[in-house]
Design a protein that fits this description.
Blueprint lengths: L3 E8 L7 H17 L4 E3 L13 H5 L2 H15 L2 E10 L2 E10 L2 E7 L9 H4 L8 E4 L2 E7 L6 H9 L4 E5 L7 H15 L2 E5 L2 E4 L2 E4 L3 E3 L5 E4 L5 E8 H10 L8 H4 L4
Parallel strand pairs: 1-2, 2-3, 7-8, 8-9
Antiparallel strand pairs: 1-14, 3-4, 4-5, 6-7, 9-12, 10-11, 12-13
The chain binds 2-oxoglutaric acid.
The site of 2-oxoglutaric acid has 9 residues, from loops.
Length: 263
């Protein structure tokens, strides 16, 4: 049976600490991608607040309201939405990617690798589980920004059946080259689709380059953003993925007995 969906990456300049402004930007962009046929959309990392570290515990209190707006929109438009938000729990704040399928939060993933280079580990708590979740558009693997530098995480998601990797990010200059290279490598080696949504614009001392990407399992770039607010939409053809996996049999040809199995 032919399986094909339209997928989107939403990229915008996150207004630091301004939840209402960011929510309006996100909802408008999601309506636009739906008009272009997208059934699945990924938003950037911490898209409602940006990295307003010191105010995160206070800003995280807005997250239930943001999620409610997302759930309502997903139900109205019949979409699956993924993106990370600050999640407050007791005195901790997690960087959490929520998966909303038609009106319901079906699962969540808390960022595993905190970017110590920018002090994330001083302000955020780390997650302790990986996530592959079945949804109405397919099996989604979820990761956040710096996670991209840890390939073993993605191989685990692939072995657990991820068909589409959804990655939310706030990845700044000057590391555009790492971003693009690592995303393509993750797609090619794991033979899955990748949706990577980055933010753009300036937040404090950081300059974000955007360059959100939609990538096919063979590494073909299906959509690539520039440095300003935009949305990407492309068709994902699952038959293409199956053909590639049948032609180049990375899954069958692995030798874990030699180089180790995953934990
Ligand atoms: O790994 C990088 O270069 C950027 C990571 C990052 O900015 C983050 O995880 O927030």
């Amino acid at each position: 049976m032919e399986r094909r969906i339209h997928a989107a990456a939403v990229q915008f300049n996150i207004a630091l600490g301004e939840v209402e402004t960011n929510l309006e930007r996100a909802l408008a962009a999601l309506r636009r991608v739906r008009e272009q046929g997208a059934e699945l959309a990924v938003l950037p990392e911490m898209w409602s607040t940006g990295y307003d570290y010191k105010r995160l515990p206070e800003l995280a209190r807005e997250t239930p309201r943001v999620l409610e707006a997302l759930r309502d929109l997903a139900r109205e438009l019949g979409m699956v939405l993924v993106g990370s938000l600050p999640e407050g729990q007791g005195d901790r704040v997690y960087n959490t990617a929520y998966v909303v399928d038609q009106g319901k939060v079906v699962d969540k993933y808390r960022k595993l690798h905190l970017f110590s280079n920018m002090g994330e580990d001083r302000f955020l708590a780390a997650g302790d589980r990986t996530l592959v979740v079945p949804t109405s558009v397919g099996r989604l693997g979820v990761a956040i920004c710096y996670d991209l530098r840890f390939p073993e995480l993605f191989r685990k998601l692939a072995l657990e059946g991820a068909e589409i990797l959804c990655l939310s990010a706030e990845w700044p200059k000057p590391r555009q080259d790492h971003w693009r290279t690592l995303l393509r490598a993750r797609a090619i080696e794991n033979q899955f689709f990748v949706i990577a949504a980055n933010c753009c614009g300036i937040q404090g001392k950081l300059d974000f380059f955007g360059m959100s990407l939609l990538i096919a399992p063979r590494g073909e770039i299906l959509g690539e953003a520039g440095e300003s607010d935009t949305e990407l939409v492309a068709a994902f053809d699952f038959e293409e993925m199956v053909n590639y996996r049948t032609q180049i049999r990375c899954y069958q040809d692995r030798r874990p007995e030699v180089y180790g199995t995953l934990p």
